[in-house]
Predict the 3D structure of the following.
Amino acid sequence: MSKMHVTATVNGDEVEFLADPRETLLDCLRDHLDLTGSKEGCGTGDCGACSVMLNGRLVPSCLVLGVETDGATIETIEGMAPEGALHPLQRKFIEHAALQCGFCTPGFLVAAKALLEKNPDPSESEIRYWLAGNLCRCTGYDKIVRAVQDAAAEMRGAA
Amino acid sequence: MRYHAPATFDEAVSIAAAASGVTRFLAGGTDVLVQLRAGSVTPDDLIDLKKIPGTHEITALPDGGWRIGIAVSGAMLGAHAQLVADWPGVVEGMELVGSTQVQGRATLTGNLCNGSPAADSVPGLVAAGATVTILGPNGSREVPVEQVPVKPGKTVLEPGEIITAITLPPRGTKGGDAYLRFIPRTEMDIAVVGCAVSLTREGDTITAARVALGAVAPTVLLDEACAQAIIGTTLDDAALDALAGAASRAAKPISDKRGTKEFRVEVAGVLARRAAKIAYERAAK
């Protein structure tokens, strides 16, 4: 199986890797680029743990092939905040205890950030629908929704 | 598995024609990659159509219709205000497919080609009178969407043929459409029954209508009796009763884990009635 050369921009940096055509973007991020923040929950686009931004759009990276991303711009959880700092969403997730095991958290954060960029003042209902594709088996979701609301309020105040 | 990213549809067709093993075309990938992962389909040749110019575009046509590229995702459809204003039922059907993440990838064409009787975006396309352009080794042809699915998982596409675009007709003034489905939860499920209605009004009277039912037969149904039940009426109670009766009679469902035959027959009528009311209101605007 011949590997293909892929050049993409990940979190602002140009990266190159060799991908087997069968490898997903998630496989490539984790195994070739050592960006292990994106998690594999289901591998079939159902759980949202592998959420990334691909060319400005929220996608499950398990449903994207690595070879498809030649020339693409990708943002992952690792690029969410500058080195040594936390994004308001990350801080609010901690304050509200919106995580327990933490496996789903990177996906929730990437998805919630995408929501707040599109809609800085979402209703609870809009948050719940937007995040319906992110599954969490620990928290029961209420704390996550409250953390997103609180982060949104803080970000609106700062803007 | 060989990955191909042709720059034109003609090149894609040539690659497919030269391939001898299992071939799959890749648009959003939300079905193909799941099948790959499950090991149910491992293509020898995977032909990615997303690098072909125009496949990500929604184009307003001179006659007032729309051409939708085969790689346009649900998220892109929903963000297109003019298209949503013309064909809200088509867009709301697509937007029911999967999560926000899946919406970033999944396409109308992929949902159609997957061949599911319960595909949420297909009844809206059928009711709208949408057509697809099919390109293959023997040239190009235009096919109404209702003729694309043949049976579950099987479409009219011959080996090596691909859909190159979906075309929606001009909406015109005083037209409206709607899609509703029944699922036992609020979000993220497969339709137990779906129904799309598209109609045109002159004043209060319906002058044209198309009604499509999903998940109640091996393919999405376009039902003429349903349309006739409301054409020429003001969608009064008698017309709604006639529509509901026609929809229930048209439904030929199976019983499975998501719903019984009897339930689906009943709900087909309920959804037809409700979708027609929404389409009728939208047509007034």
